[in-house]
Amino acid sequence: MKEYDKIPAQAVVEVTTSWGRTCLREIGRDLKEGTVLDGYYYPVSKAFDFNWKGEGAMLWIGDNGRLVSLGEGQKHKYMMLSRMLSDCKYFLRNPYERHLYFPSIARHCKEMRQYWLALNIKPDWLSYKQIGRLEHKMNRMKTKLDRQFKKDRRQ
What we know:
Elements: E1 7-13, H1 18-27, E2 36-42, E3 47-52, E4 55-60, E5 65-70, H2 74-93, H3 105-118, H4 128-154
C-alpha cells in the first residue's frame, strides 16, 4: 500500500466520546455537530486537519469526527469494489463467469484485492480475507457445475 502524508477529504463533526466533546469545545463553541468540513485526513494518526475561522484545527476520527469522502479516485475505487462484490454474490447464485466484471474468477478476485489494497481507508463491509473466501466459494461452485456438465454430456 502506498503511504500518504495527507489525503484531501471531507469530514462531518460527530462527537462519540467525552474526550471528543472536550476537544470540540477547545476549537470553538460555534462548531456544531453535523457541520461538514473540508481539509486533510492523516490515515496513520486518524486525524482530520482543517481551518476554522482562520485557525488550524483538528478532529480525531472516531472521537469527534467522521469521514464523509476521500480525495481523488477513492470514491471510484469504493464503487468498483462494491460492484465487484455484487458480481461475486450474483455468481454464487448463478455460477457463470460471464456474470463477472473480469473474464475469470482468478482475475476478478485479483483485481478486487488490488482495489482493496489501493484504498486509503479500508471498507468495514469487506476484508481482505473475505475476498479469498469468496474466491474459494466461487471456484468450488464452478468446479461443481463443470462436473455436472461433464456428467450430463456423457449420458
